[in-house]
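Hey team,

Filing this mostly as a record. A colleague (T.K.) asked me to run one chain through the structure pipeline before their review meeting, and I want the input and output archived in the tracker in case anyone asks later how it was produced. No errors, nothing strange. Just documentation.

Input sequence:
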Amino acid sequence: MNKFPTIEGKEYLERVNTLRNEMAKRGVDIVVGFSNLLEIAIVRYYCGFAPVNESSAIIIPSSGEVTVCSGQASYDYCLTQNKLPESRIAILPEIGEVSGFEYNTEGQLDFAELFKQIKAENPNAKRIGFIGRLIFPSIIMDKLRRVFNDAEIVDFDDVHYEQRIRKSPAEIEILKTNWNMVSDMFEAVMPKIEVGMTERYIEGMFEAEMMKLGAESYVQSFAPMVATGPSNSHISMSRNTLRTINESEIINIGAGVCYEGYNGIICSPLVLGEVPQKIKDAVMCAYEALNYASAKMEPGTPCDVVLNAYTDYLTKYGYIDYCPYGSLHSTGMLECEAPTFTVDNKRVIEENMAICIDAYFKGMEWGSFRVEDCYLITSNGAKRMTTYNDNAIPKLFK
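Output structure:
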């Protein structure tokens, strides 16, 4: 088996056709998707292209050519990365690397001109979907509304994310590669962490190791987070500082890798030197609660069964007041992907989902920490795919 698998063009075409089937069910004639660095995967999911230092877009009509939209700086890269058959590439200034940048490139269009071309090719389009509700730029939306002034514009985010939640065989192979990388990275880096190192120095250790292993970048949500001590560890999402780490204090580490556009994450606490008993007790409770809940992640199980099992466990052992949430979320082209799993929505766990469980303990006098792993839902239940915590946590904290 290829150590570094990829997604082939045929699968991208299948994804477009799956979306077109959903468009037909909802009477949608054209879908316009937009990606930026916050949600880089919308466009990449359908064609394989993710720009460098720019945004991107994709226009998918109910039939005919798909248009992949690049800025000027990433255009040549788009030519090599776009794997979608039966597609064309357009250069658009509205998604360029600098706001208001004046392009001087032969063949360039702005979105008004491109939408006029699309309308001429689809003169009967009456309903248009857009993907990227949190990030879709007003400058592009305004031009879409002006050109298609007699069409209804509808939110298509939920359809897109529902399509991404069940992984194909090719996606699973890429995710397995990713999960192996992140596990190997933790195995290599964690034993090298020493008292006196700064948070930023340790961040660099993780980044260097993931590149050696073949990752394209760190996980597309955040750089490795190394939150240390009773003050810094309380921050849920943070940038690392020049604080140096000490013995017998909590080190709250979260790090992940991106490979072929897919992401894997591990969060794991660490203490150097003697481990205080209070920290041992809390970490082991979080780890065991995660194991208890994940054992219930079988195909056909409503997610509230899993989430309630987690909170019930913490209640039993007295840690529920330190649990701001019990996170159960899809993972894939983003570390945390929609749709979410909540007690209220009771989404059903299904085979071929990739799911993270995040046991987050916050607000103890000595600090906060996370235990997080990635799971693949198989016909036999959930399989923990990131292996570091299973070996390291009992060894250090039991």
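Quick notes for T.K.: The mean pLDDT is 95. Residues 169-189 form the longest helix (21 residues).
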